[in-house]
Amino acid sequence: MLEDLDMTTLSPIDQITIDDYIQLYARDGAFEIINGKRKKIMPPVMIHIIIVRALFRLLDAFSTTYRLGEVMTEAPYVLAYNSNWVKGSRVPDVMFFSKERWQKYISNTDDWARKPAILIPDFIIEVVSPNDLYTELQQKVEVYQNDGVHLIWIVDPMRQKVAVYTLNNSQVLVLKIHLMAVLYSPTCKLASKICLQALMLKANNK
Fold this sequence. Notes:
The chain is of the alpha+beta class. The protein is about 40% helix and about 25% strand. The protein is built from 6 helices and 10 strands. Strand 4 and strand 5 (about 85-90) form a beta hairpin.
């Protein structure tokens, strides 16, 4: 079955199992499945890698210290039918799962450690690369919001801005940043703290 799958598109009747998805991901490299179409992920450039790493370290350190949840970088999460058939998949630069949701997930999911996350993140960060198109970024935000992601950051190093999208809110908050601040300044840690605290408050009030 695996060798018969097309490299660019999956039609609705050609959905694959979690096991086939894992094998395909290992064989062909990172890709996403969006609206039935498979999109191969291009290798990131160094500035993208450095910024993603810095944001991951800041968020992970804070989340670990206060036991808020799990932060992951460039890992897939999948949408599945009955936790067996893959409906779609995404690979954010950084994603966060609240502690309560993550613990419930691993408690209720058989063999969870040997599968990609079958869980929608609470918070996603995407770092804009030089070759990213604005329309593609907007489509990506729509996809994440349709999935149910509560908070999305689009970090644009070239324009020195962060666009903050929240679920069920049409207003977009635009923050001015400095690239070096993102990498080294405690201001970025403060922003991470405020962001994660807001997420936990939202999760606890559900």
